[in-house]
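Figure 3 (text version): structure tokens given as input.
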């Protein structure tokens, strides 16, 4: 990993990519989403402050545990600008994300446990399928797994931007 002298306070996008392990395109994406910031030189080149290294590490760690980028952006917005997230920041934010992650883990465990209920042919055409029809929302009306868009009777209504609302119904072939 290339070392950057302490006297250099700004990094090019290439230096930031080399040090953080993130692709240049990922850094541009993070910047477009407001996760990191840069300034532009007179030649319109990006320059990132050294704290961007810690912010990128923070973003990547949060992404690895399944935190959405919007939530990460909100968390970083709580920090003072130009300050790297500290261990205390991570502990506080990760504690607030714990319940959300616990709920996702429960959902994934339920999904895994219900995989054996699938008939395995790919069509999922059971009367009640916990994968394509959780809680059997449609099972009382029809059977099958594919949901089709059924338009309400719009023959009497003129065609315009105010179309009749669509609703989902289940049908089988």
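Below: residues designed for each position.
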């Amino acid at each position: 990993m290339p070392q950057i002298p302490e006297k250099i306070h700004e990094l090019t996008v290439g230096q930031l990519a080399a040090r953080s392990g993130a692709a240049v395109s990922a850094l541009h994406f993070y910047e477009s989403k407001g996760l990191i910031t840069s300034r532009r030189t007179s030649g319109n080149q990006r320059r990132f402050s050294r704290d961007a290294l810690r912010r990128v590490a923070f973003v990547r760690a949060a992404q690895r545990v399944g935190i959405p980028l919007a939530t990460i952006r909100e968390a970083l917005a709580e920090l003072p600008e130009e300050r790297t997230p500290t261990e205390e920041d991570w502990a506080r934010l990760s504690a607030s994300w714990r319940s959300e992650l616990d709920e996702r883990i429960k959902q994934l465990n339920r999904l895994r446990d219900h995989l054996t209920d699938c008939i395995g042919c790919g069509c999922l055409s059971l009367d009640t399928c916990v994968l394509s029809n959780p809680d059997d929302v449609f099972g009382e009306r029809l059977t099958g797994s594919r949901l089709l868009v059924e338009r309400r009777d719009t023959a009497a209504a003129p065609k315009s931007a105010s179309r009749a609302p669509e609703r989902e119904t289940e049908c089988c072939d």
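Residues 127 and 143 are 5 Å apart (CA to CA).
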